[in-house]
Amino acid sequence: MAADIDAIAPLRAWLREWQARVRAVDFEGGRTMCASEIVAFGTVAPMVEGIDAVMDAQWHKVWGNIRDFTVHTDQARGAIAGDHGWAATTWDSRGTRPDGSTFQRPGRLTVAFVRRDGRWLATHTHFSLFPGGPDVAPRPPDARSAPAKP
Q1: Which of 39, 45, 112, 138 pairs as cysteine with 57 (C-beta 3.0–4.6 A)?
Q2: C-beta separation of 42 from 3 below 8 A
Q3: What is the CA radius of gyration of the chain?
Q4: pTM for this one?
């Protein structure tokens, strides 16, 4: 039975909540999921430190301009060791152009976590588009299947 236990279930739950916050463009809700000292790499922000800076440099520029943000939580890989954890998986969204048309934005993420007062908080996030960019790179054939082997 122990093999059936999902060792990163709390991190998958965090990823599902994150998806809901991004879809709702709920910046303050997203803030509550992150440590104040977060360091982030994003799709538009190369490197940002501190939650306010992350919100300004990344979230405010992206969340309202994408649709159908979907984190592939079932494919997530990661680990928990005491009060620290990490998770990595792929995600999809649709970007919007000024004329209202949309385009696919497949990407990948890694999140580092710390547990404080019983809650998992992101201390580092790395969200990036698949190599080549959304309008250039074709969707990898295995984007919805198991992660590629190194």
Answers
A1: 45
A2: no
A3: 15
A4: 0.85
As a whole number of angstroms, the distance between CA 42 and CA 109 comes to 9
The tokens for 140 are: 């990898």
Domains of the chain (ranges, CATH numbers): 7-129 (3.10.450.50)
Task: Give the 3-state secondary structure of 45-76.
Answer: CCCEECHHHHHHHHHHHHHHHEEEEEECHHHC
The Cα 43–Cα 62 span in angstroms is 8
CA 69 remoteness from chain centre: 9
Q: Which two tokens stand for residue 135?
A: 């309008």
User: Apex CA 30: angle with CA 74 and CA 119, to 5°?
Assistant: 70
Token pair in block for residue 56 = 């300004």
Instruction: Please tell me the distance from the alpha carbon of residue 2 to that of residue 123, in angstroms, as a whole number.
Output: 29
